[in-house]
Each structure stands twice: as structure tokens, then as C-alpha cells.
Amino acid sequence: xxxxxxxxxxxxxxxxxxxxxxxxxxxxxxxxxxxxxxxxxxxxxxxxxxxxxxxxxxxxxxxxxxxxxxxxxxxxxxxxxxxxxxxxxxxxxxxxxxxxxxxxxxxxxxxxxxxxxxxxxxxxxxxxxxxxxxxxxxxxxxxxxxxxxxxxxxxxxxxxxxxxxxxxxxxxxxxxxxxxxxxxxxxxxxxxxxxxxxxxxxxxxxxxxxxxxxxxxxxxxxxxxxxxxxxxxxxxxxxxxxxxxxxxxxxxx
Length: 253
Known about the structure:
Distance between the termini: 19 Å
Structural class: alpha/beta
Number of domains: 1
Largest sheet: 8 strands, parallel, barrel
Low-confidence stretches: none
Radius of gyration: 16 Å
Number of strands: 12
Oligomer: single chain
CATH superfamily: Aldolase class I
Strand order of the largest sheet: 1-4-5-6-7-10-11-12
């Protein structure tokens, strides 16, 4: 059985980490540099850094704050936000990212995934999919969850994985920030459709939610969360001990 990963997510706006509910009502949390250092020292397996308004603002990702953050991180770092070209991959990787997450950029240019995978390898390309139920159908949203693309999510994810995405982050807009548990139905549908690592995002409110996730979907690779870690509601070492007690394999310090 593969080791399950616990991944904090830094949603960065104007150089500060923020958090909201259902992708709205953003509140200031902390400095990404300080938080990155804290998580590196406190048992996180990886870290995700999203410049959450880069795409909606139509600009490139802020590289100065990214480079400073990356300098404090000694675990794998995935970076996303405003990734629209292979050159954007190159720029972010040179700032210290290990993997690059693409969302709206792949929706605008479906060839981006295959071009980046060919240049940097599948393991470097992470598809981040913001998904919401619309009339009972999983739909892909763009621009930080603001824009319904009309695309059916599972077929879109399968297409991107076939093009070279080596990992998928599934962001459930329906459960984001609600703290009532992960979106098991949505995540199971994605895991059934692809054979690359799938990361669950959106809905964590307690240690039990992570236990339930890994028990319900043994194939899921990782659980990602933001506010419950940022505000100290869940300490990662405590979470990992709880997972270990429930026969879920994790990396203990």
C-alpha cells in the first residue's frame, strides 16, 4: 500500500496567503514564506502554492514571492496560477518549483499539457481541476472557480491525463471551505477514470475527514487542505498519528 501524502495549500493573493469559502470571501491568513517554513518543519509531505488571482487578473504569477518561499521549502513544491505557456513552466521551475500546476491555461490551450510533458516529463505536470455540480453534472470551472466552462469534468481530466498530466488535483468547489468532509463521490469518479495519482482538495474540517477519505477511496494518493492547517485546527503530526492508528500508511517524522 502506497504512503498517503498530507499537503497544505497556500492560496496566495497580492503576496499574502488567503482563505475563503466556496472560492469566495477571501480573508488574510499569513506570509507564504513563514507558512512554508512552518510546514516544512512540521511534517507536511509536499506543499502547493497557488497564485489564485493570476489567471482572473490576466497576469503572470508573482515570481519574487515564489522564489523566496521556495528557498524555505525542503519538500516537493507544486506551483500554479497564471500558467499559460511552456515558458511559464520554465520560469516557475527556475524559481524553485518541483512540479507545475495548470488549470485555466490548459482549458484555453489543450496542447499545453502535452507540450509541457514532452519538455519536462509527465511527473512535472499537475492538472488542477476546479469542479462543481451543475444540474447534477460535474462541470469544469476556470479562473479560480469564477467561470463555468460547460465541459464535463471526468472526460476533461481523462483527456489531460492521456496528454501527459502525471497527477491530478481535484478541487471540489461544492465542499471548499465548508469543513464537512471531502467530496467522496466526485473523487471516486476521478480515481475510477485515471491511473495517475489523485489529490483530494476541498472540505477537510477534522482529522476524521482524512481518515474517512483514505478509508472510502483506498486509491486516493493525498489529502490537501488549507484553513484547517493554517488556523491550527489540525496539526499535521497529530493528523498523521491518527491516520497511522487507523492503519493508513503515512510518513512519520
